[in-house]
Design brief:
Blueprint (H helix, E strand, L loop, with lengths): L1 H72 L7 H16 L19 H34 L4 H5 L13 H6 L9
């Protein structure tokens, strides 16, 4: 009888152990399911960020394309649409190097890696210099036209090669003598 009681106790203990393991397993499954639900939320948020980033990239790219086209339409060849294409591609490929999809794109050497600001800021500085030069030319043209209309301004013609020209103009010697066709600056 005692043997049967011991066997029954062992069976009960095994059942209790199995039930405890099953409860522990269910609790672990529940924790894993809750964690997975968190990852589902994280994936949705990350997907939204990626879509928003791509939309922002597309909008910025469209703005750059429009600006380059307008710059070209006003007579400047730099930056060109080809430069925008080439350098923009490098900037995008550089950004992709640290993303999970890097293997899907051609590797870019470290010396070719760019970001948009690395070339856009150079273009903007070059454009600003061109604008400054054009404004100086317009100011110089105004001074030259004034001296032609006002006799008392004739001393500017006399001092044309000197630094006393009313505007620090790199063309001061030719503009005061009328040797430059100023219509190109109008």
């Amino acid at each position: 009888m005692e043997l049967k009681a011991i066997d029954a106790a062992i069976v009960t203990a095994k059942q209790n152990l199995a039930a405890a393991k099953a409860n522990e397993s269910r609790a672990a499954e529940k924790r894993a399911a809750i964690e997975l639900r968190g990852f589902a939320k994280q994936l949705r948020e990350a997907g939204k960020k990626c879509d928003a980033g791509l939309l922002q990239l597309a909008e910025g790219a469209d703005e750059m394309k429009h600006a380059v086209a307008e710059i070209n339409a006003r007579g400047l060849g730099n930056p060109s649409a080809q430069q925008l294409q080439s350098l923009g591609e490098r900037a995008i490929r550089t950004a992709l190097m640290d993303m999970p999809w890097a293997r899907a794109f051609e590797h870019i050497r470290p010396t070719e890696r760019r970001n948009f600001m690395s070339f856009v800021s150079q273009w903007a500085a070059s454009l600003e210099r061109e604008v400054a030069n054009r404004l100086i030319s317009v100011a110089c043209l105004s001074a030259c036209l004034s001296e032609a209309q006002e006799p008392e301004m004739s001393r500017w013609r006399r001092d044309a090669s000197a630094s006393s020209h009313p505007v620090n103009c790199s063309r001061r010697a030719t503009c005061s003598r009328g040797e430059t066709d100023w219509r190109m600056y109008g």
